[in-house]
């Protein structure tokens, strides 16, 4: 009978990439139902044949390309653990920047209203609601299946200050209501070869690609969000690392002021935003890229 160390070493010979050791450990923890500390402390323990076979099956699926998050059914994001499944985008660490920028604009001691558009698993909405219990969040998605997962995450995490609605982007939102509207929309160009590589092959295309330049969804959001923002409210959007300038120009053209782009931890343009004014189109402050 193989030990924990044996089957981990076996997996390392099969898994490609620099993350092989981390992925093998995550999948073994899932197969055995144990913690990271247990794996370290019990490296010489024997693994029964059924669980070893289950682990080898997970490794085979990972070698085929299936994302680890879909194989384990969970993904950590910000300060919460989410259930994920095929049909929703896998939350990524760079999107945590979007959450932080919302939290900077929603004081912990104030009642605020936030909309998360295209919520998927509910990652952004639930992370905000968890960190700001006084914030009321409305989360929308066109996919009923995605909303089922998001509602399940909210119930499991016991987060009750999020309301989920089915609809496309701003459809169904009350007018002039929100302090912040936030979205991680699809922003990859439809013909981008990366859509056929890695984890992206298994994620829902509708959550990844948007038009020939990747900006169709962002154009819709910039054009429509103002009707649903309070005077001085913020629109914050995640986008691709080469799209910062284009998104800033869209925001400025629609009358948003204080337009900016914020870089992620790897120094890439990642989130752009602006402040809405009910006075209509105005000369915005100079658009900037934040450090």
Show unreliable segments. Answer: 281-288
Mean pLDDT: 93
Most strands sheet: 8 strands, mixed
* CATH fold name of the largest domain: Rossmann fold
Polypeptide structure, described:
With 291 residues, the chain is an alpha/beta fold. The protein has 2 domains: 4-64; 87-289, Rossmann fold (3-Layer(aba) Sandwich). Helices cover 35% and strands 20% of the residues. The chain has helices spanning 4-14, 20-32, 36-41, 49-64, 68-72, 96-104, 123-131, 144-157, 216-225, 244-253; strands at 74-77, 80-83, 112-117, 135-141, 162-166, 178-183, 229-238, 257-263, 269-275, 288-289. Strands 5-4-3-6-7-9-8-10 form an 8-stranded mixed sheet, sandwiched between helices. Strands 1-2 form a two-stranded antiparallel sheet. Strand 8 and strand 9 (269-275) form a beta hairpin. Helix 2 packs across helix 4 (49-64) and helix 6 (96-104) runs parallel beside helix 7. It is elongated. It starts with a helix and ends with a strand.
Summarize the structure.
By secondary structure, this protein is an alpha/beta fold. It is 35% helix and 20% strand. It has helices at 4-14, 20-32, 36-41, 49-64, 68-72, 96-104, 123-131, 144-157, 216-225, 244-253, and strands at residues 74-77, 80-83, 112-117, 135-141, 162-166, 178-183, 229-238, 257-263, 269-275, 288-289.
């Amino acid at each position: 009978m193989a030990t924990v160390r044996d089957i981990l070493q076996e997996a390392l010979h099969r898994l490609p990439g620099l993350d092989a050791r981390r992925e093998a450990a995550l999948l073994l923890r899932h197969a055995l139902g144990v913690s990271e500390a247990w794996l370290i402390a019990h490296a010489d323990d024997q693994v029964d044949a059924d669980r070893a076979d289950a682990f080898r099956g997970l490794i085979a699926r990972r070698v085929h390309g299936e994302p680890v998050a879909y194989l384990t059914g969970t993904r950590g994001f910000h300060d919460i653990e989410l259930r994920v499944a095929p049909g929703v985008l896998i939350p990524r660490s760079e999107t945590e920047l979007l959450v932080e920028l919302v939290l900077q604009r929603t004081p912990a001691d104030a009642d605020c209203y936030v909309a998360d558009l295209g919520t998927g698993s509910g990652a952004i909405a639930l992370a905000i609601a968890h960190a700001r219990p006084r914030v009321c969040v409305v989360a929308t998605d066109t996919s009923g299946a995605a909303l089922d997962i998001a509602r399940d995450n909210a119930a499991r995490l016991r987060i009750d200050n999020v309301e989920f609605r089915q609809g496309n982007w701003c459809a169904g939102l009350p007018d002039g209501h929100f302090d912040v509207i936030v979205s991680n929309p699809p922003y990859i160009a439809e013909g981008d070869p990366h859509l056929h590589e890695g984890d992206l092959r298994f994620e829902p295309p509708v959550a990844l690609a948007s038009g020939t330049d990747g900006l169709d969804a962002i154009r819709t959001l910039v054009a429509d969000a103002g009707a649903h923002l309070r005077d001085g409210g913020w629109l914050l959007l995640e986008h691709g690392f080469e799209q910062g300038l284009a998104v800033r120009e869209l925001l400025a053209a629609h009358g948003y002021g204080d337009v900016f782009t914020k870089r992620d931890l790897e120094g890439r343009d990642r989130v752009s935003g602006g402040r809405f004014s009910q006075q209509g189109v105005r000369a915005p402050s100079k658009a900037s890229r934040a450090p």
